[in-house]
């Protein structure tokens, strides 16, 4: 990315006239409301343009770090940009489907630009290919923008779809493979306009891992500051490898903790729930 987008500041309370003035001057009120919407629309367009240059799910082969410990069959992994869980291919597994549900978190935006991405996907943890989709938060000028999106190897360019996602929306995300065909889908049952289904092809994808991840995305400068999303809870997670369909804990699973270059935790995953199909990631720091 060559430059940071200059999003227009969006006025809030200052743009809303008092009730009496609104009644006395309806034309002015309407103009003000229209202006507010146009500012928001222009800011959203600029936010989309910035997102085109993001890298999500990258650096997969760098996720494991030397000295990781295996505890009760679970590999503890540190990552500079991922937090969550991944099923790996230690038993030679290849994966054909992955799903999860979540409620879109609410971001607390500061004056600086921060981002947070939530996704499910096949590949990326033990390979260079990625086939993934989910939701994304971009904080800019203390304003949060929420999107649905997908990304597919070999293009690896994030494709934003819905821009009217809001905190509290009920999200279902999935990636399903049949041979070399991949169906990526996100359903926003609260705001259906953000939902999509797309079918892509890949003949060289490894299909060697499945992931449920909260991520700090990257651009050409490296990992970007993580948005304060509070917490993100993935639930109802399913995964299929070969003829076996199960949950996160059905296959060899890895717990990933996001840390900065000094090893300080940025986003911390909790333990899997009793059903092995859900967990919560908690925000700790932006960088």
Fold blueprint:
Elements: H1 19-24, H2 26-51, E1 70-71, E2 74-79, E3 82-87, E4 95-103, E5 114-122, E6 131-140, E7 143-152, E8 159-160, E9 170-178, E10 181-188, E11 196-201, E12 210-215, E13 218-219, E14 222-223, E15 231-241, E16 244-246, E17 253-259, E18 265-269, E19 279-283
Parallel strand pairs: 2-17
Antiparallel strand pairs: 1-2, 3-12, 3-17, 4-9, 4-15, 5-6, 5-12, 6-7, 7-8, 9-10, 10-11, 13-14, 15-16, 15-19, 17-18, 18-19
Q: What would your notes on this structure say?
A:
There is one protein chain. With 287 residues, the chain is mainly β. It contains two helices and 19 strands. The strands form two sheets. It has a 17-stranded mixed sheet that branches. Strands 13-14 form a two-stranded antiparallel ribbon. A hairpin with an 8-residue loop joins strand 5 and strand 6. The protein is globular and about 50 Å long. The two termini are 19 Å apart.
């Amino acid at each position: 990315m060559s430059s940071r987008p200059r999003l227009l500041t969006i006025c809030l309370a200052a743009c809303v006239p008092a009730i009496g003035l609104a009644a006395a001057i309806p034309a002015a009120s309407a103009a003000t409301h229209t202006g507010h919407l146009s500012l928001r629309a222009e800011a959203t367009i600029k936010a989309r343009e910035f997102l085109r240059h993001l890298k999500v799910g990258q650096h997969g082969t760098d996720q494991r770090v030397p000295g990781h410990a295996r505890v009760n069959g679970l590999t503890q992994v540190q990552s500079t940009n991922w937090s969550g869980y991944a099923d790996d291919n230690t038993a030679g597994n290849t994966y054909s489907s992955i799903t999860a549900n979540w409620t879109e978190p609410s971001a607390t935006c500061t004056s600086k630009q921060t981002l947070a991405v939530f996704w499910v996907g096949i590949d990326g943890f033990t390979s260079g290919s990625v086939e993934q989709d989910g939701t994304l938060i971009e904080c800019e000028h203390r304003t949060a923008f929420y999107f649905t999106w997908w990304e597919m190897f070999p293009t690896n360019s994030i494709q934003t779809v819905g821009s009217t996602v809001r905190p509290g929306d009920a999200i279902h995300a999935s990636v399903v493979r049949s041979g070399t065909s991949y169906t990526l889908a996100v359903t926003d049952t609260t705001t259906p306009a953000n939902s999509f289904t797309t079918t892509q092809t890949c003949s060289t994808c490894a299909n060697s891992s499945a992931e449920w991840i909260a991520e700090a995305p990257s651009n050409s400068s490296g990992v970007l500051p993580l948005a304060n999303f509070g917490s993100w809870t993935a639930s109802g997670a399913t995964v299929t490898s070969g003829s076996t369909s199960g949950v996160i804990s059905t296959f060899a699973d890895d717990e990933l903790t996001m840390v900065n270059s000094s090893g300080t935790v940025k986003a911390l995953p909790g333990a899997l729930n009793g059903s092995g199909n859900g967990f919560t990631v908690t925000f700790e720091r932006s960088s």
